[in-house]
Amino acid sequence: MASHLAIKIGKQSTMAKILVTGATGRLGNAVLRSLVQKIPASDVVAMARDTEKAKPLVELGIEVRYGDYTDYDSLVAAFKGVEKIYLVSAVAFSDRLAQHKNVIIAAGRAGVRHVVYTSIQRINDELAPIEGVTDSDIATERLLKKSGLTYTIIQHPLYANDLPLLIGVNAAQEGFSAPTGKGRASFATYAELAEAGAELLTQTGYENRTCLLNAGQTWSFQEIADGLARLTGKVVKYQPISIGDFIAAREAEGWPTAVAKFLSGWGYAIDKGAFDQSGPALEKLLGRKPKDLDGILRDAFSL
Ligand SMILES: NC(=O)c1ccc[n+]([C@@H]2O[C@H](COP(=O)([O-])OP(=O)(O)OC[C@H]3O[C@@H](n4cnc5c(N)ncnc54)[C@H](OP(=O)(O)O)[C@@H]3O)[C@@H](O)[C@H]2O)c1
């Protein structure tokens, strides 16, 4: 029978091969490790531009294939015999759209049926877009929807693990300042997002849909300070600051200006309410409540 057919077992289904890109990165690697808990490793393919780096996955029985987003032919070859792709978005401040376009066109060429793309959460396309991220994600979503392939767009929140980048690794000890105002945001760890992504890949019902994944609740940065204080037993002060002051403070700590500006964009978007949005899909996919604020802060700040 055609490899397009899923063999349904209750709500779950096993598919022909599922390929995950970004296999050597945080998210893609965790998706692969979750996936082999759910379906036979022989149905799982990892794509990496550095196959040597992906070698530990081979020990799990996963086939590793070479593929580079910037090399169209390598993608067509990597996608041969693949039914579904979990496309980890390319790194910020690269030519993301061109890379994603290569993947989507190569997927069509190779006969892939379904592409799942990891996009960024936002209330709408206009409110405080993050430079280097939001525009290319919106354009990729449009391209994928028009591609004729079955699609699923997963909209991710901020990775909880990256909170220390925004508010400082010593936030729990020293308090913190950030350009986040009274804005609220939801988070999730990339491990939870990966586990949910693997679950989604093995289920039906997410075809041609956009799926918002996050903790199911939002927090202000004052609540984050209160959470850190609760966990440490210390006073933790939050000081909202301007974008300019945030960039200057980071530069003074030795951060490259481009990185400081990039992070300030996340703060600005949060302040404007672009991440003030939550939904139940992550809990549904995980089959349990995602980490709450204390769990997120414990993880992110090793408390
Ligand atoms: N929502 C958030 O808060 C948040 C935070 C961080 C990142 N992100 C986005 O989510 C994506 C995944 O996050 P992550 O933490 O897993 O990032 P990561 O650890 O940096 O992993 C990125 C992966 O993409 C691969 N890659 C980069 N360029 C490639 C290319 N030209 N061709 C093929 N593969 C390529 C990397 O390969 P190498 O190992 O060879 O470099 C790596 O496996 C990021 O790329 C970014 O778009 C979102």
Helices and strands, with pairings:
Layout: E1 7-9, E2 12-14, E3 17-20, H1 26-38, E4 44-48, H2 55-58, E5 63-66, H3 72-78, E6 82-87, H4 96-110, E7 114-120, H5 134-146, E8 150-156, E9 158-159, H6 163-167, H7 171-174, E10 176-178, E11 184-185, E12 187-188, H8 190-201, E13 209-212, E14 219-220, H9 221-232, E15 238-240, H10 243-252, H11 257-272, H12 281-286, H13 293-301
Parallel strand pairs: 3-4, 3-6, 4-5, 6-7, 7-8, 8-13, 9-12, 10-15
Antiparallel strand pairs: 1-2, 11-14
Helix pairs in contact: 1-8, 3-4, 4-5, 9-13, 10-11
How does this model look, in words?
This protein is of the alpha/beta class and 303 residues long. It has a domain at 15-156: Rossmann fold (3-Layer(aba) Sandwich). The protein is 42% helix and 19% strand. It contains 13 helices and 15 strands. It has helices at residues 26-38, 55-58, 72-78, 96-110, 134-146, 163-167, 171-174, 190-201, 221-232, 243-252, 257-272, 281-286, 293-301; strands at residues 7-9, 12-14, 17-20, 44-48, 63-66, 82-87, 114-120, 150-156, 158-159, 176-178, 184-185, 187-188, 209-212, 219-220, 238-240. It has a 7-stranded parallel beta sheet with strand order 5-4-3-6-7-8-13, sandwiched between helices. α4 runs parallel beside α5, α9 (221-232) crosses α13 and α10 packs antiparallel against α11. The longest helix has 16 residues, at 257-272. The chain is globular. Mean pLDDT is 94; it is low at 1-14.
